[in-house]
Amino acid sequence: MLKNFWYAVEFSDAITSTPKRLKVLNQDIAIYRTHTQQVVAMQDLCVHRGTALSGGWVEGECIVCPYHGWSYQADGTCTNIPANATDIPIPSRAKLTTYDVREKYGWVWIFMGDIPEVERIPIPDLPYFDDSNLKSLHGDFLWNTHYTRVIENLLDIAHVPFVHAGAFGNREQPQIAEFAVDSYPNGAGATVMLNASRPKGLWGFLASKQPQVVKTRTAFFMPNITFLEVHLVFGRLIVYNAHVPIDDRTTVSKWINLRSFFTGNWADDDARKRVLKIFNQDKDIVESQRPQIVPYDLNEELNVQSDALQVEYRKLRRQFLRDR
Ligand code: FES
Ligand SMILES: [Fe+2]
After folding, report:
1. Which of 43, 64, 70 to mutate to test the pocket of ligand 1 (most atoms within 8 A of CB)?
2. For residue 71, which of 33, 62, 119, 299 is within the disulfide window of CB 3.0 to 4.6 Å?
3. 209 pLDDT higher than 80
């Protein structure tokens, strides 16, 4: 488990003054927004009797447990035990584990590790989020498998002609031209010329001159972000994903889609359907993979040239599992 990393775990606009429960790396987390708009994340377990705090409510900066009304402030310290007389001190052990939180790129990021800020790998610099010409759209997708398999699916070029035949891939031309892998500080990417099929539906109107070969860029940023950029004749399509590791068998991809064409809200439904169609084409295949966690040993599965980016991911993951 890579615990000493910032994980993007939810969309900022999904965190309000109504507490909610998140599960990340098998841990239950209560998360809410205070009256000063700060996002607070803490263990979702009241130290009094183990009740889920996410079932409670927010008062100012504090979250109140729904069982006996104990209040906890943002640093996890209990500040009120209603059943006690006011002159009885609050036990020093009445304190919750809290997690550092940041908001960036429209996601909430949580740090659940045990190293100080100065030693942490920072949240990655991600391009295009500040480009006001791009229309943004976001949503969730559930996978019943480990997030490492989901990440590799997003990095995998050679499956496109098979799994996405017709939607994007071209089964008549499955060869993948050799490509270079570029390393980032904590990730890697590759630009691949992909033999594509012509888009259908709404996009088909724009695509009459669409070339057979489409330039695509795929990348990953440890531990859970993937990036895909597709250069279509009529514009650019960018798909970011935060693949949230719920537990060893469950992943939710919090995707953000940026497009340079059809930038009105009217085209959002169509764009959303396209993302979900691609994910749904992948879902059964990815969930069928065994073992569900990507093996760390490069000899355990077979790697060919078109798997170069996934090989880089496996190497980095193995390195960080050792170091962090
Ligand atoms: S269990 Fe939370 S206040 Fe009692
Ligand atoms: Fe796919």
Report:
1. 70
2. 62
3. no
